[in-house]
Amino acid sequence: VAALTDVSFSVSIIPHTGGETTLLNRKIGEPVNLETDILGKYVARLLEGAKPRSSGITRAFLEQYGY
């Protein structure tokens, strides 16, 4: 994700992704399927100072396992 607002986002596509997906054929406003990395969400939440909700994942846990 290159830019993010409350109502939109833009992405930068690396050549490999462009060649392996149909993203480069999409036009502005066309729907896309987005999948997120749940661990990434927890890391982002930790970096913002919020605690993950009842997941058991803590900063210490992430550090212990190399994240």
Mind explaining what this structure looks like?
By secondary structure, the chain is mainly alpha-helical. 33% of the residues lie in helices and 6% in strands. A hairpin with a 4-residue loop joins β1 and β2.
Write the SSE topology.
Layout: E1 3-4, E2 9-10, H1 15-20, H2 38-47, H3 59-64
Antiparallel strand pairs: 1-2
Structural features:
mainly alpha; 2 strands; two-stranded antiparallel ribbon; elongated; 67 residues; 33% helix; single chain; 3 helices
Beginning-to-end CA distance, first to last residue: 21 Å
Q: Point out poorly predicted stretches.
A: none
Strand order of the largest sheet: 1-2
Order of helices and strands: EEHHH
Please work out how many helical segments DSSP would assign.
Answer: 3
Percent range of helical residues: 25-40%
Question: What is the rounded Rg?
Answer: 16 Å
Main sheet attributes: strand count, strand direction, barrel closure: 2 strands, antiparallel
Bulk shape: elongated
Q: How many DSSP E strands?
A: 2
Structural class: mainly alpha
Strand content: 5-15%
Kindly report the average pLDDT value: 81
Brief synopsis:
It is built from 3 helices and 2 strands. It has helices at 15-20, 38-47, 59-64, and strands at residues 3-4, 9-10.
